[in-house]
Amino acid sequence: MKLTYLAFTEKGEQLAGRLAAALGGTAQRCGACCSLEAWTAAHFPQNDGLIYVGAAGIAVRAIAPHLQSKATDPAVVVVDECARYAIPILSGHLGGANDLARAIGRACGALPVLTTATDVNGVFAVDEWAKRQNCRILNPERIKTVSAKLLAGCTVTVQSAWLIAGQPPRNVHQGENSGADVLLELRPSPGEALHLVPRIAVLGVGCKKNVSSQALEDALAAFLTGAGICEQAISAVASIDLKKEEPGLLAFCAAHGWPLRTYPAEQLRAVEGRFTPSAFVQGVTGVDNVCERSAVLASGGTLCRGKTAGNGVTMALALAPYQPNWRWQDE
Fold first, then answer.
1. Predicted pLDDT of residue 249
2. Structural domain boundaries of the chain?
3. Cα–Cα distance, 276 to 278 (Å, whole number)
4. How far is CA 86 from CA 103, 109, 131, 313, in A?
């Protein structure tokens, strides 16, 4: 996690420095070089975790104008300057604030004060499980429905395209029920289940020089429709190193928050498998196929959808190996 700490007193600044040394990140003191409002505005959208060393009320007022969604807000934890308590006040599960509070406790002896209902009742937290299983949640508003069933002692059914390893938590079971409460699947679903999408796909891209980001967006929309795969499954884009500075491709990746991984032709040629060859691509790049080979190489897995081409863009999709399990909290 990318962490940052803000203290309000000399004693608090010393604690912030100790935590930054133990857990990583940067520590500052309010008033010395920044204001509370400016510091929060600058770090809230850029960091995974914000730690305020001081009073909880100060932190609550500071972050209030910046709250967006439990699916995107960073973890926020408050630690008192005597290091007695570490209190997650935002994004306990999806953002990792509960885990961060536990880590702070291990670093300085503070007691983590967890208030999320599933934690205090010892109940399976489906949103924390989704994070640990490397999943995006398509409809986070459904989290409360699943959690409410579990807190009421009802059984929750999880439908998954993969066999989930281990022993299911109490009142949770895997089944092929059309009325399942939770769906673990790469493909779009019109149902009412809480839909979790594993981020295991790599999009391989080949493109002409000076391709526009809009051309890539159009190609992606058509490609995903044909593949029947949720966009949220994509974790990265891969291509040949000739394209590492291609402006349209870089803008396309940045718009989606995807890293761009590029490889030299000789490394792509060494990828084992059967790929769609192109004499033209071979002549220009030195390898017979860019999109399929780069997707497989970057994913470390297998091709899910082969090359599609149009308007100067080729795309392919490969899936990394994936084995979900029932782990949802530290042992």
1. 97
2. 3-115, 126-198, 201-319
3. 7
4. 9, 9, 21, 50
The residue count of the chain comes to: 331
Nearest by Cα to 236 from 299, 308, 157, 174: 299
Within the chain, strands assigned E span 3-7, 26-29, 49-53, 75-79, 85-90, 111-112, 135-137, 156-160, 172-174, 182-184, 194-198, 201-207, 234-240, 260-263, 302-310, 313-319
Question: Taking each helix axis from N to C terminus, what angle separates 213-227 and 247-256, rounded to the nearest 10 degrees?
Answer: 60
Structural domain 126-198, CATH architecture: 3-Layer(aba) Sandwich (3.40)
96-104's contacts with Cβ under 8 Å and 24+ in sequence apart are: 96/1, 96/48, 96/49, 96/131, 97/49, 98/128, 99/330, 100/1, 100/3, 100/49, 100/51, 100/75, 101/77, 102/330, 103/23, 104/19, 104/23, 104/51, 104/77, 104/79
82: pLDDT confidence band, cut at 50, 70 and 90? Answer: very high
pTM of the model: 0.82
How do 156-160 and 135-137 pair as beta strands? unpaired
What is the tens place of the pLDDT at every residue in 225-279? 999 999 999 999 999 999 999 999 999 999 999 999 999 999 999 999 999 998 9
- Residues forming beta bridges with residue 87, ordered by sequence position: 78
Beta bridge partners of 184: 160, 196
Number of other CB atoms surrounding residue 198 within 10 Å: 24
Q: Is residue 128 helix, strand or coil?
A: helix
- Domain 3-115 architecture: 3-Layer(aba) Sandwich (3.40)
Question: What CATH number has the domain spanning 201-319?
Answer: 3.30.420.180
Partner residues linked to 185 by β-bridges: none
